[in-house]
Amino acid sequence: MIHVTGDIHGAVFERFTPEAMPGEDTWGADDKLIVLGDFGLVFYPDGEQFRYERLLEQKKLEYLEAKPYEILFIDGNHENFDRLFAETTEEERYGGTVRRVGRNVFWLQRGQIYTIEGRTFFCMGGAYSIDKDFRREGISWWARESPTEKEMENASENLIAAGRKADYILTHNCPQVFIQLMGYASNPNDIALTSFFNWIWYEIEFGHWYFGHWHIDRDLHPKVTALYESVKALGEE
Hey, what CATH class is 2-233 in? Predict the structure, then answer.
Protein backbone atom coordinates (compact mmCIF):
# COMPACT_ATOMS: atom_id res chain seq x y z
CA MET A 1 0.00 0.00 0.00
CA ILE A 2 1.15 3.54 -0.80
CA HIS A 3 0.26 6.41 1.55
CA VAL A 4 0.79 10.16 1.12
CA THR A 5 0.99 12.95 3.68
CA GLY A 6 1.92 16.62 3.82
CA ASP A 7 4.84 18.62 5.13
CA ILE A 8 6.92 17.08 7.93
CA HIS A 9 9.42 19.90 8.66
CA GLY A 10 11.72 17.45 10.40
CA ALA A 11 9.05 16.42 12.95
CA VAL A 12 9.97 12.76 12.59
CA PHE A 13 9.35 11.56 16.16
CA GLU A 14 5.99 13.34 16.25
CA ARG A 15 4.66 12.32 12.83
CA PHE A 16 5.97 8.81 12.14
CA THR A 17 3.83 7.16 14.82
CA PRO A 18 0.60 5.13 14.91
CA GLU A 19 -1.08 8.03 16.73
CA ALA A 20 -0.26 10.58 14.01
CA MET A 21 -0.54 8.07 11.17
CA PRO A 22 -3.22 5.51 12.12
CA GLY A 23 -2.17 2.03 11.08
CA GLU A 24 1.50 2.99 10.71
CA ASP A 25 2.52 0.23 13.11
CA THR A 26 1.06 -2.36 10.71
CA TRP A 27 2.98 -1.17 7.63
CA GLY A 28 5.57 -3.61 6.33
CA ALA A 29 8.25 -3.98 3.69
CA ASP A 30 5.74 -3.67 0.85
CA ASP A 31 4.33 -0.36 2.13
CA LYS A 32 5.46 3.16 1.24
CA LEU A 33 4.86 6.64 2.59
CA ILE A 34 5.34 9.67 0.32
CA VAL A 35 5.86 13.11 1.90
CA LEU A 36 4.74 16.06 -0.24
CA GLY A 37 7.65 18.40 0.45
CA ASP A 38 9.28 20.27 3.34
CA PHE A 39 10.71 17.00 4.60
CA GLY A 40 13.24 19.12 6.48
CA LEU A 41 15.34 16.31 7.89
CA VAL A 42 18.71 17.00 6.24
CA PHE A 43 18.44 20.67 7.13
CA TYR A 44 20.95 22.22 9.52
CA PRO A 45 24.23 23.49 8.01
CA ASP A 46 27.75 22.77 9.24
CA GLY A 47 29.04 24.63 12.26
CA GLU A 48 29.48 24.19 15.98
CA GLN A 49 26.34 26.26 16.63
CA PHE A 50 24.26 23.51 15.00
CA ARG A 51 26.09 20.56 16.53
CA TYR A 52 23.15 19.49 18.71
CA GLU A 53 20.64 19.87 15.85
CA ARG A 54 22.83 17.78 13.53
CA LEU A 55 23.11 15.03 16.16
CA LEU A 56 19.33 15.06 16.60
CA GLU A 57 18.85 14.81 12.84
CA GLN A 58 21.07 11.73 12.80
CA LYS A 59 18.91 10.17 15.53
CA LYS A 60 15.82 10.96 13.48
CA LEU A 61 17.31 9.32 10.39
CA GLU A 62 18.21 6.24 12.42
CA TYR A 63 14.61 6.18 13.68
CA LEU A 64 13.32 6.20 10.10
CA GLU A 65 15.83 3.60 8.97
CA ALA A 66 14.44 1.26 11.60
CA LYS A 67 11.01 1.44 9.96
CA PRO A 68 10.18 -1.59 7.79
CA TYR A 69 8.52 0.48 5.06
CA GLU A 70 9.99 2.92 2.51
CA ILE A 71 9.82 6.67 2.97
CA LEU A 72 9.84 8.76 -0.21
CA PHE A 73 9.65 12.54 -0.40
CA ILE A 74 9.58 15.37 -2.88
CA ASP A 75 11.37 18.54 -1.86
CA GLY A 76 9.62 21.63 -0.57
CA ASN A 77 10.92 25.17 -0.24
CA HIS A 78 12.18 24.63 3.30
CA GLU A 79 15.03 22.23 2.54
CA ASN A 80 18.81 22.49 2.75
CA PHE A 81 19.53 21.77 -0.89
CA ASP A 82 23.28 22.13 -0.39
CA ARG A 83 23.33 19.21 2.03
CA LEU A 84 20.72 17.20 0.17
CA PHE A 85 22.82 17.17 -2.99
CA ALA A 86 26.16 16.79 -1.20
CA GLU A 87 25.15 14.02 1.18
CA THR A 88 22.96 11.80 -1.00
CA THR A 89 23.77 9.37 -3.77
CA GLU A 90 21.96 9.13 -7.08
CA GLU A 91 20.51 5.85 -8.25
CA GLU A 92 17.90 4.43 -10.59
CA ARG A 93 14.69 3.37 -8.92
CA TYR A 94 11.04 3.07 -9.95
CA GLY A 95 11.92 3.79 -13.58
CA GLY A 96 13.53 7.14 -12.78
CA THR A 97 16.34 8.80 -10.88
CA VAL A 98 16.15 9.17 -7.10
CA ARG A 99 18.65 10.21 -4.42
CA ARG A 100 19.17 7.95 -1.44
CA VAL A 101 19.07 9.72 1.93
CA GLY A 102 19.07 6.59 4.10
CA ARG A 103 18.58 2.85 3.93
CA ASN A 104 14.89 3.18 3.15
CA VAL A 105 14.59 6.94 2.61
CA PHE A 106 14.60 8.34 -0.94
CA TRP A 107 14.29 11.82 -2.43
CA LEU A 108 12.08 11.87 -5.55
CA GLN A 109 13.46 14.28 -8.14
CA ARG A 110 11.71 17.18 -9.85
CA GLY A 111 9.99 16.41 -13.11
CA GLN A 112 10.45 12.65 -12.92
CA ILE A 113 7.70 10.13 -13.62
CA TYR A 114 8.01 7.01 -11.48
CA THR A 115 6.19 3.71 -11.66
CA ILE A 116 5.45 2.38 -8.18
CA GLU A 117 3.27 -0.66 -7.62
CA GLY A 118 2.09 -0.45 -11.21
CA ARG A 119 0.96 3.17 -10.98
CA THR A 120 2.65 6.24 -12.46
CA PHE A 121 3.59 9.27 -10.37
CA PHE A 122 4.64 12.63 -11.76
CA CYS A 123 6.62 14.46 -9.06
CA MET A 124 7.52 18.14 -8.84
CA GLY A 125 8.88 19.63 -5.65
CA GLY A 126 9.86 23.19 -4.82
CA ALA A 127 8.15 26.50 -4.16
CA TYR A 128 8.94 30.09 -3.19
CA SER A 129 9.32 30.89 0.52
CA ILE A 130 7.07 33.79 1.47
CA ASP A 131 8.99 33.98 4.77
CA LYS A 132 12.29 34.35 2.95
CA ASP A 133 12.91 37.83 4.39
CA PHE A 134 12.98 36.33 7.88
CA ARG A 135 15.52 33.65 6.94
CA ARG A 136 19.25 33.68 6.18
CA GLU A 137 20.63 32.29 2.94
CA GLY A 138 22.75 29.23 3.57
CA ILE A 139 21.44 28.98 7.13
CA SER A 140 17.67 28.65 6.88
CA TRP A 141 16.96 29.37 3.21
CA TRP A 142 18.51 28.05 -0.01
CA ALA A 143 18.34 29.50 -3.50
CA ARG A 144 17.41 26.23 -5.22
CA GLU A 145 14.00 26.18 -3.51
CA SER A 146 12.09 27.09 -6.70
CA PRO A 147 12.19 24.97 -9.86
CA THR A 148 14.15 26.52 -12.69
CA GLU A 149 12.81 27.11 -16.18
CA LYS A 150 14.96 24.21 -17.37
CA GLU A 151 13.49 21.89 -14.72
CA MET A 152 9.97 22.84 -15.76
CA GLU A 153 10.80 22.33 -19.43
CA ASN A 154 12.23 18.90 -18.65
CA ALA A 155 9.14 18.07 -16.61
CA SER A 156 6.78 19.06 -19.43
CA GLU A 157 8.83 17.01 -21.91
CA ASN A 158 8.55 13.97 -19.64
CA LEU A 159 4.78 14.39 -19.38
CA ILE A 160 4.41 14.75 -23.13
CA ALA A 161 6.62 11.70 -23.70
CA ALA A 162 4.38 9.76 -21.29
CA GLY A 163 1.36 10.51 -23.47
CA ARG A 164 0.22 13.50 -21.39
CA LYS A 165 -1.04 11.31 -18.57
CA ALA A 166 -0.12 10.00 -15.14
CA ASP A 167 -2.05 8.16 -12.46
CA TYR A 168 -0.97 10.62 -9.77
CA ILE A 169 0.41 14.15 -9.68
CA LEU A 170 2.47 14.84 -6.54
CA THR A 171 3.66 18.40 -5.98
CA HIS A 172 4.57 20.76 -3.18
CA ASN A 173 2.74 23.82 -4.49
CA CYS A 174 -0.36 23.73 -6.71
CA PRO A 175 -2.08 25.39 -9.69
CA GLN A 176 -3.11 29.04 -9.42
CA VAL A 177 -6.75 28.07 -9.73
CA PHE A 178 -6.60 26.11 -6.46
CA ILE A 179 -4.61 28.77 -4.64
CA GLN A 180 -7.48 31.13 -5.42
CA LEU A 181 -10.01 28.50 -4.38
CA MET A 182 -8.31 28.31 -0.97
CA GLY A 183 -8.79 32.08 -0.67
CA TYR A 184 -5.19 33.14 -1.35
CA ALA A 185 -3.47 35.15 -4.05
CA SER A 186 -0.63 33.67 -6.07
CA ASN A 187 2.73 35.05 -5.00
CA PRO A 188 4.34 36.88 -7.97
CA ASN A 189 7.57 34.97 -7.34
CA ASP A 190 5.74 31.67 -7.81
CA ILE A 191 3.81 32.59 -10.95
CA ALA A 192 6.05 30.61 -13.32
CA LEU A 193 5.61 27.43 -11.27
CA THR A 194 1.90 27.79 -10.53
CA SER A 195 1.27 28.63 -14.20
CA PHE A 196 3.12 25.45 -15.15
CA PHE A 197 0.82 23.59 -12.76
CA ASN A 198 -2.16 25.26 -14.45
CA TRP A 199 -0.93 23.76 -17.73
CA ILE A 200 -0.84 20.33 -16.10
CA TRP A 201 -4.34 20.83 -14.71
CA TYR A 202 -5.78 21.65 -18.11
CA GLU A 203 -3.61 19.55 -20.43
CA ILE A 204 -2.63 16.38 -18.56
CA GLU A 205 -4.90 13.42 -17.85
CA PHE A 206 -4.49 12.17 -14.29
CA GLY A 207 -6.29 10.21 -11.61
CA HIS A 208 -5.61 12.36 -8.54
CA TRP A 209 -3.43 15.32 -7.57
CA TYR A 210 -1.99 15.67 -4.06
CA PHE A 211 0.01 18.67 -2.85
CA GLY A 212 1.37 20.06 0.43
CA HIS A 213 2.85 23.50 1.21
CA TRP A 214 -0.32 25.24 2.42
CA HIS A 215 -0.62 23.45 5.77
CA ILE A 216 -4.25 22.46 5.31
CA ASP A 217 -6.08 19.16 4.87
CA ARG A 218 -8.84 19.68 2.34
CA ASP A 219 -10.40 18.10 -0.73
CA LEU A 220 -10.60 20.99 -3.20
CA HIS A 221 -11.99 18.96 -6.09
CA PRO A 222 -12.92 15.30 -6.60
CA LYS A 223 -9.44 14.89 -8.10
CA VAL A 224 -7.39 17.39 -6.05
CA THR A 225 -6.41 17.21 -2.36
CA ALA A 226 -4.28 19.45 -0.17
CA LEU A 227 -2.53 17.53 2.60
CA TYR A 228 -0.75 18.55 5.77
CA GLU A 229 -1.11 16.18 8.73
CA SER A 230 -3.64 13.82 7.17
CA VAL A 231 -2.49 10.54 5.65
CA LYS A 232 -4.24 9.17 2.56
CA ALA A 233 -4.05 5.61 1.26
CA LEU A 234 -3.83 5.72 -2.52
CA GLY A 235 -6.57 3.88 -4.35
CA GLU A 236 -9.13 4.84 -1.70
CA GLU A 237 -9.94 8.30 -3.14
Answer: alpha beta
